[in-house]
Design goal:
single chain, 556 residues, alpha/beta, Rossmann fold, 23 helices, 13 strands, binds 6-O-phosphono-beta-D-fructofuranose, carbohydrate derivative binding, Glucose-6-phosphate isomerase
Length: 556
């Protein structure tokens, strides 16, 4: 528990004083003055390389940020997390996603005095055995045909991770299998997938930590009803399996708990891709590749746990983010992966980071004294370049960017990889250096523009630059590298939460909307008009319009 507000700590105040000078710096000058800046400001871990040299800071800034991490007890909280202490104190839960990817003999985590490694590895063994049977064609549908399609029904952490990883690692997929993901309660989502699959050869995975999430349960019910138009109820066991912590609800739904893959309350939804929630991944890419994915994350865990703060990749990435957020006032962070198959990575990070650190109350129950989690957004890099990068280059807000580049492609189409990387590196260079009025003038003069036209154009064509970015390099988009990268972002999120003094592992903010939706659902379904006094005028009018539209649709 922190008793001191962040802004009252000595380290934070030292950073504020330092910022008065640092605010004057331009990245162009920092690079000019320090030719070995890249050498000094990059770090390697678990096969990844993070270049953080294009941030508006110097060695003094970093050393003050390290003091801040120490003063906020990052190391002690990290060790408490790894050992299984209940650091998610508002839910009285340990936070042990790291135990899911640790080799059995390297896992010392305990919950309530009980080691967790044995049950983790028993479930992994079940995943291995099941995925091998499905992939090998021994697990068959009710008419004896092999499984060709896997439909994961889940939302939030029970969707974003598996979908992102299955997409990123599609190179490793089994030729016979296609994975589909249904998350949205909007029936168009399920409808579209059902139109593409055959009940005889489809395996549904109902993935929900709680097994009570409205969207997932409705989608699962509708998928079961669709299946029963073709197969019989005794065939369900061959086509429906569950991933959950809630065995009671799983059997109430009609899934045999033999076909349930459990996990535990000490795995947060947004940290659950390493648990049985990763079942679609193991099915699609095979257990051995899934194990490499876990090993990559474990390599990053070891680095995070063992490396000194000064050369600790997640700590550095987190502290650079704190500098940008709390001293340079950046309200958002853009994620720009330069790899088509990482297209769902920004959405994955939105949940990871914003559901973890989108908080305003500290661990001791008082409001935070600084801004917390920036908004996270983005898309694959080259597409973003032709859409919103204009704002990043010349808009009024400074938005830091995480560029993610993969050095080795898995295609062999000539020229594309060079073009892709050229774009990635050019963007970070442009954000860093900009283009000043003299450079613009020289360009326009070379084109022979008359002085009057030239003067009018210069302000529009000038770029301030000095816009911070990180570049993360992956050797290739392998299971190991992807696992390491996700773990990097998890630990970055952890360190920032520790510095802000918030609980990164609960999510009370999503509850209110869920409760209100229940009331409104009943009103939308009811024959009698709802009592208008229960809602504000806007909500009442919207409910009335929806009821009217439904009535009109019924009458044809
Ligand atoms: O509503 C938010 C949330 O609780 C997330 O934290 C979680 O990942 C998602 O819903 C899905 O929850 P479940 O896996 O229990 O269906």
């Amino acid at each position: 528990m922190h008793t001191t507000a962040l802004t009252d700590t000595a380290a934070f105040q030292a950073l504020q004083a330092h910022h008065a000078t640092a605010a004057q710096w331009h990245l162009r000058d920092l690079f000019a003055r320090q030719p070995d800046r890249f050498e000094r400001m990059h770090v390697r871990a678990a096969g990844l390389l993070l270049d953080y040299s294009k941030n508006r800071l110097n060695a003094d800034t970093l050393s003050l940020l390290m003091s801040l991490a120490r003063e906020r007890g990052v190391e002690a909280l990290r060790d408490a997390m790894f050992s299984g202490e209940k650091i998610n104190f508002t839910e009285q839960r340990a936070v042990l996603h790291t135990a899911l990817r640790a080799p059995a003999d390297a896992c010392d985590a305990q919950v309530d005095g009980q080691p967790v490694a044995a049950e983790v590895h028993a479930v992994l063994e079940h995943i291995r055995e099941f995925s091998e049977r499905v992939r090998g064609g021994q697990w068959r549908g009710y008419t004896g045909r092999e499984i060709t399609d896997i439909v994961n029904i889940g939302i939030g952490g029970s969707f974003l991770g598996p979908q992102m990883v299955c997409t990123a690692l599609r190179d490793y997929r089994h030729a016979r299998l296609t994975a589909h993901f249904v998350s949205n309660v909007d029936g168009h989502d399920l409808d579209e997938v059902l139109a593409r699959i055959d009940p005889e050869t489809t395996l549904f995975i109902v993935a929900s930590k709680t097994f009570t999430t409205q969207e997932t349960m409705l989608n699962a019910k509708s998928a079961r009803a669709w299946f029963l138009q073709h197969g019989k109820s005794e065939d369900l066991a061959k086509h429906f399996v569950a991933v959950s912590t809630n065995a009671k609800e799983v059997s109430a739904f009609g899934i045999d708990t033999e076909n349930m893959f459990p996990f535990w309350d000490w795995v947060g939804g947004r940290y659950s891709v390493w648990s049985a929630i990763g079942l679609p991944i193991a099915l699609l890419i095979g257990y051995d590749h899934f194990a490499q994915f876990l090993a990559g994350a474990h390599a990053m865990d070891r680095h995070f746990r063992e490396a000194p703060l000064e050369s600790n990749m997640p700590v550095i990435q987190a502290l650079v983010g704190i500098w940008n957020r709390n001293f340079l006032d950046s309200a958002s962070l853009t994620i720009a992966p330069y790899h088509q198959w990482l297209r769902f990575f920004p959405a994955y990070l939105q949940q990871l980071d914003m559901e973890s650190n989108g908080k305003r109350i500290t661990r001791d129950g008082t409001p935070v004294s600084v801004e917390t989690c920036p908004a996270i957004w983005g898309d694959v890099g080259t597409n973003g370049q032709h859409a919103y990068f204009q704002l990043l280059h010349q808009g009024t807000d400074i938005t830091p960017i995480d560029f993610i580049a993969v050095l080795k492609p898995s295609h062999a189409i000539a020229e594309h990889q060079e073009a892709l990387l050229a774009n990635c590196f050019a963007q970070s260079e442009a954000f860093m250096r900009g283009k000043d009025a003299d450079e613009v003038r020289a360009d326009l003069q070379a084109q022979g523009l008359p002085e009057a036209e030239l003067a009018a154009l210069i302000p529009h064509k000038t770029f301030d630059g000095n816009r911070p970015s990180n570049t993360l390099l992956l050797p290739e988009l392998s299971p190991h590298a992807l696992g390491a990268m996700i773990a990097l972002y998890e630990h970055k999120t952890f360190v920032q939460g520790a510095i802000w003094g918030i609980n990164s592992f609960d999510q009370w903010g999503v509850e209110l909307g869920k409760v209100l939706a229940k009331t409104i659902l009943a009103e939308l379904k009811s024959d009698t008009a709802p009592d208008a006094s229960r809602h504000d005028a806007s909500t009442s009018a919207l409910i009335a319009l929806a009821r009217e539209a439904a009535r009109a649709a019924q009458q044809g």
